[in-house]
């Protein structure tokens, strides 16, 4: 069965939602040729004329890149410029372009998570928090003999999950009173007569994302015609669901030179740039792919003693002498994107039974050599 570009767009949101992207970014569709069926997908780091040709030769009419083709505000399309040439080639060959830039940097399981995983970092936090999801306290009064059914339905809908704990509730016994109207259909009692019932108040925490599912689950199993439900947004806890950069603890303190050797092995590169004292041992490390030298101070504030990124400006080296700075190259710190995104896309296609070929372009070497 054909799969439309719009259907694919929904799947892409499951991997790295555009809402995770920074305001200054241009993640999402850069070229959207609507009302087309997707014949194949090509994943790349950058959009280049040769990659567009490669996609066309392989029968792909959707390219997914990490870096946006249209990044800054565009006032004209010049076919002799890099952007204009690529746009013209994409349209002529009927290829749409989707870019997952800071959305994939910030997503759990994205580039920065991959970098942190290579060093087995624990006790993690984001260098810069992204999307923050609030929690709600949901409370409902139910007859005693329905308490377990209501509580179970709430849990299955996502309520009561905090970290490694599930089915967390608080219960209070009490007396409920109500007077059904003459046209009501009460589970207990008679119209016009005041009733007193032994009830249990069940309260539980749920995420903002799960709130409507929890409310629906309660109503589906609750015996009352009009159950009394309250939902109050809490200041704490909060769930940070995305962020840029990761800081975490190494499994054990390591010499700086050993960390750098491990980094070159991970990135399969022969050279990196380092500033700072290299004789001691490091316990806590920060990572952020791409150009994130301006995050050095924030990483230090989160306890990082060494910060790895792709590009660092001279001023950042000057301003942050209290942390070891490692510049490993924009290309090398982000080249993992292609395999990461292709694997995530393959899983999503499998889950929804989409039979579409996915190709990863042969990565070129960095544009700058040392």
TrEMBL record:
Pfam families on file: DUF34_NIF3
KW Metal-binding (keyword) present: yes
Q: Residue span of the signal peptide, if any?
A: none
Q: Which InterPro entries match?
A: DUF34/NIF3, DUF34/NIF3_bac, DUF34/NIF3_sf, N-reg_PII/ATP_PRibTrfase_C
SUPFAM superfamilies (alphabetical): NIF3 (NGG1p interacting factor 3)-like
Keyword annotations: Metal-binding
Amino-acid biosynthesis recorded as keyword: no
Q: Which family does it belong to?
A: Belongs to the GTP cyclohydrolase I type 2/NIF3 family.
Q: What is this protein called?
A: GTP cyclohydrolase 1 type 2 homolog
The protein's organism comes out as Christensenella tenuis
Classification from the root reads:
Bacteria, Bacillati, Bacillota, Clostridia, Christensenellales
């Amino acid at each position: 069965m054909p799969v439309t570009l719009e259907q694919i767009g929904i799947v892409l949101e499951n991997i790295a939602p555009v809402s995770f992207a920074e305001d200054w970014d241009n993640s999402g569709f850069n070229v959207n040729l609507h009302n087309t069926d997707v014949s194949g997908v090509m994943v790349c780091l950058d959009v280049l004329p040769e990659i567009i040709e490669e996609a066309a030769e392989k029968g792909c009419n959707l390219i997914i890149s990490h870096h946006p083709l249209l990044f800054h505000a565009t006032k004209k399309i010049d076919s002799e410029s890099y952007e204009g040439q690529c746009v013209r080639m994409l349209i002529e060959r009927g290829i749409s372009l989707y870019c997952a830039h800071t959305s994939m940097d910030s997503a759990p399981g994205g580039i920065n998570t991959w970098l942190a995983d290579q060093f087995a970092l624990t006790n993690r936090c984001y260098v810069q928090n992204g999307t923050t999801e609030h929690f709600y306290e949901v409370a409902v009064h139910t007859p005693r003999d329905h308490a377990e059914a209501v509580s179970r339905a709430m849990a299955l809908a996502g309520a009561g999950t905090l970290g490694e704990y599930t089915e967390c509730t608080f219960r209070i016994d009490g007396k409920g009173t109500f007077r059904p109207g003459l046209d009501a259909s009460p589970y207990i009692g008679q119209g016009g007569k005041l009733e007193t019932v032994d009830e249990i108040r069940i309260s539980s925490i749920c995420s903002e994302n799960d709130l409507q599912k929890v409310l629906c689950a309660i109503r589906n199993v609750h015996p009352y015609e009009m159950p009394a439900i309250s939902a109050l947004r809490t200041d704490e806890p909060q769930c940070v669901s995305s962020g840029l950069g990761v800081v975490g603890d190494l499994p054990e303190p390591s010499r700086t030179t050993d960390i750098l050797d491990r980094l070159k092995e991970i990135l399969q590169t022969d050279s990196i740039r380092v500033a700072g004292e290299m004789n001691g041992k490091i316990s806590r490390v920060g990572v952020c792919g791409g150009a994130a030298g301006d995050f050095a101070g924030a990483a230090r504030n989160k306890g990082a003693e060494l910060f790895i990124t792709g590009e660092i400006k001279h001023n950042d080296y000057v301003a942050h002498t209290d942390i070891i700075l490692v510049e490993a190259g924009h290309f090398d710190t982000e080249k993992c994107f292609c395999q990461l995104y292709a694997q995530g896309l393959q899983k999503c296609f499998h889950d929804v039974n989409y039979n579409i070929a996915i190709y990863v372009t042969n990565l070129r070497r960095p544009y700058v050599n040392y």
